[in-house]
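Q: What would this complex look like in 3D?
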Amino acid sequence: MVFFSVDKLEPICKDIRADILRMTEAAGSGHPGGSLSAVELMTVLYFNVLNHRPQELEWSERDRFILSKGHACPVVYAVMARSGYFPVEELLTLRKLGSRLQGHPNMKSLPGLESSSGSLGQGLSVANGLALAAKIDKRDYRVYCLMGDGELQEGQIWEAAMTAAHYKLDNVCALVDYNNLQIDGKVEDVKGIAPLKEKWLSFNWHVIEIDGHDLEQVEKAYAEAKQIKGKPSIIIAKTIKGKGVSFMEDVAGWHGKAPNSEELEQALKEIYVQEGSTLKN
Amino acid sequence: MIVKMKMKPTRDGYGEGLLELGKTNPLVLVLDADLSKSTRTDWFMKEFPERFFDIGIAEQDMLGTAAGLALAGKIPFVTTYGVFVAGRAWDQIRTTIAYAELNVKIAGAHGGISVGPDGATHQALEEITLMRVLPNMILVVPCDAIETKKATLALASLQGPAYLRFTREASPVFTSESDIFEIGKSITLKKGTDLTLIGCGPIVYEALMAAEELNKLGISTRVINMHTIKPLDKETIIKAALETGAIVTVEEHQVMGGLGGAVAEILVQNSPVPVEMIGIQDTFGESGTPEELAEKYGLTSRHIIEASKKVLKRKTCRA
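A: Here is my prediction, written as structure tokens for the whole assembly.
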């Protein structure tokens, strides 16, 4: 498996951000905010961490990734396309009638997705089931699960947290995209979830806290989680909703709103500002 | 004259079915939510402890975990009371399981008002409605312990999500091991030409007793055991309407959207005939013995006979 160094990952992250914006603009709807905040987490996962074969989807030993925060599917579709699951051009079919890229992930329409999701709070349970099966069969694959922070208000997450610790599912690595925003405002204003680290520690998880946009920290966190035995791990990634686009950053309103064409153009300029105005395809 | 058969709870049929699956199918796993002594999954647990998972009092988590197990190629049988699995975990069943067509088998124990003294909170009266409205879902309501065991085995061989409804109380065993059970194919237990009783679950026995009385009165009564609510045996229903002209549906369940609703949908679109529905008439249950509750809530053969006479009055003569 090819390993991408940080300086190779940075341009990929730019492309992923551009993909998210382009596909939601083309769709006229979608969830850019919570997709942009997860870009580094997902890029490192799909390019460096996941043991997977994009050309051999049924490979039984593959690591599994569950997108519990299903609305962030733009970032997942983008990393899937960029890592070889399907052509990048297909990204622009997001949410269109007949598209394989449904508004929320449909595993029946897009091979490569490990579950269908969209109703929050359910993915960690699913991840546990996959991990449990691996333990039963003495298989080595790992299971990753990305959750939103607002999503942690769902009780089922905590049921699953208990299950993972109870069954010592050290093959589970959960991720929290901790951008502190939900639809109706700041998470701490709607229903506070802090202190997160202490909560997960008390649920008998190994906890890793990082800056979710620092590629090196993300890399190290995944590696650390892999070493932990006897308990599941969670990476609490402090992120910024809408990261990479100045007018979207830390703004609740960009949770589920697509950019229009002017906003897209502005956003792309900001993303590629380091490399001049050449737009990649 | 129907010989009084032995009495056995349908949940025992489920327990036995699981034991057999444990021996023959290594992919089968069983999950429960702290009710294994009641649901009979503890029989499987004792024989195959490494394949049994008590997820605790966490039904939504249990369904999600089962989804993950199914994604990994296992055949999980998720078990708890009908009120909890069909109610509390409905979204999990809908969005994570049915939408993705996952191979999860959902066993809803303690279906019906015959749950008895526990009262309304534990008497599941809505699962048929809740489950049949889900695309890709298979829904089976067996009539006795023997049929419940067969259904359990049959569902393990089928690919895709399925719901199995069974009950708490000992009920008459009136089918035999040699009867053929096929998902989606109803069983005509009694031939008849004047009206048809279509039922599901242990209450089908009450329908048989009612038919016996009606036959004595010269009313030739057909009885159909509609064990599979989804996919529904439409052909047999339409045939019964065309050939007998009057239907009484019989279920230990709300009359809205259950078996009665399902049958009515078919008839109204194909061969409308008068229909009377035996079932819970839009109320919750309450504490009582199963016998008292059946009497009070209109679920006995006597009530079925009354409904039959009523539906016959509404039947127009055919040339």
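A: To summarize the key features: Chain B touches chain A at residues 29, 50-51, 53, 55-56, 58, 60-74, 76, 91-92, 95-96, 99-101 (CB under 8 Å). DSSP finds 13 helices and 14 strands in chain B.
Q: Very helpful, thank you.
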